[in-house]
Design goal:
Largest sheet: 6 strands, antiparallel
Helix content: 40-55%
CATH superfamily of the largest domain: Aminoglycoside phosphotransferase (APH), C-terminal lobe
CATH architecture of the largest domain: Alpha-Beta Complex
Low-confidence stretches: none
Number of helices: 10
Number of strands: 10
Shape: globular
Mean pLDDT: 96
CATH topology of the largest domain: Aminoglycoside 3'-phosphotransferase, Chain: A, domain 2
Length: 330
């Protein structure tokens, strides 16, 4: 979280939101990268409470996210239920000391447990179920229309992080040029109901729990109108990035094929594959490098970057410079 936002987020504001949702004062902090995420409790039962600063999302954006989640939930998909506050609001808001706003919403806690990329459960069975869940989400989104009073969810190219000149270091002009070429190439892709709609955009292994039978996806903060192929690329991208070092390129290729074969097999159980996905996935792998490089510069100050993070940023910069995806798709 940016330091300017950190200075505004205090105990008084947190306790105010807890009271509005009828939650107990004791919480467990789960994250604070782009949103503040807490495990909160009501009579000992756990919920997930998320607090967002207005510099990250406005209220209408959060309401559109929750509206899409409710559509998926109503179609029987394993996504968290969304709850209202005591006053019947899906999103509560409160002003910070500088006049900016914080927004709060409450979800059911996902069932199951996290799966490490190095665990025994990170296998072809999981990859297939991961793909099936993604396919089912894409199938359900084809029937989605914003509810009355809900503004249309933003498109992929509304993302501020695509303004790469704003976040990339001034000296990295070649990276800016190559990043803009990737973005430009994606804008030329065709759109239709079978290839483009509201998607999660960030279904990596840190954004779902698994109980051995089914996957429950959460963290829909980045959901946007996007190509379905992006939701195929992102699981592949992060599984490789976090599991296999950049020095072992052969293993990345070997694992990438195993992962994608299983994921696609599952996806076809939930949805028909979008036309042209094989040609599109490499573009979306490169787009993830472009966006991740921007967000790391935006969110983490130079003095807070450890050696592992610096190595990752160097790896990403090298791929952008050489116009290469993290893995080649045969």
């Amino acid at each position: 979280m940016e330091k300017a936002v950190e200075s505004l987020m205090g105990e008084k504001l947190l306790n105010d939101f807890l009271e509005r949702y009828g939650l107990e004062p004791e919480v467990k902090k789960l994250g604070d990268f782009e949103n503040y995420v807490f495990e909160a409790y009501q009579k000992g039962h756990p919920y997930i409470m998320r607090i967002t600063h207005s510099s990250h999302r406005i209220k209408d954006e959060i309401l559109s996210e929750l509206d899409w989640m409710r559509h998926l939930h109503s179609n029987g998909l394993s996504v968290p239920e969304v709850f209202q506050s005591k006053s019947g609001k899906l999103v509560e808001e409160a002003a910070a000391e500088d006049g900016s706003l914080f927004f709060c919403c409450l979800y059911a806690k996902a069932g199951g447990n996290p799966v490490s990329v190095r665990s025994e459960q990170f296998n072809t069975e999981l990859f297939e179920k991961w793909g099936e869940m993604t396919g089912k989400m894409h199938s359900a989104t084809k029937t989605y229309h914003p509810s009355e009073g809900i503004k249309r969810r933003g498109s992929w190219d509304d993302d501020d992080l695509l303004q790469v000149k704003k976040y990339y270091p001034d000296k990295e002009r070649d990276l800016v040029r190559n990043a803009e070429e990737v973005i430009s190439a994606i804008t030329t892709l065709s759109k239709n109901i079978d290839s483009y709609g509201v998607i999660h955009t960030d279904i990596h292994s840190g954004n779902f729990f698994y109980d051995g039978e089914k996957i429950q996806v959460f963290d829909f903060d980045d959901a946007s109108y996007h190509w379905f192929a992006s939701d195929i690329a992102i699981p592949l991208y992060y599984s490789i990035l976090y599991r296999i070092p950049v020095t072992d390129r052969e293993e990345r290729q070997r694992f990438g094929k195993i992962f994608l074969d299983s994921f696609i097999h599952g996806y076809e159980k939930g949805n028909t594959l979008p036309e042209g996905w094989k040609e599109q996935v490499p573009l979306f792998l490169m787009l993830r490098d472009v966006v991740l490089y921007a967000v790391l510069h935006k969110k983490i100050a130079p003095e807070d970057r450890n050696d592992n993070l610096l190595a990752m940023m160097e790896e990403i910069a090298d791929r952008i410079k050489n116009k290469q995806p993290i893995v080649n798709i045969d």
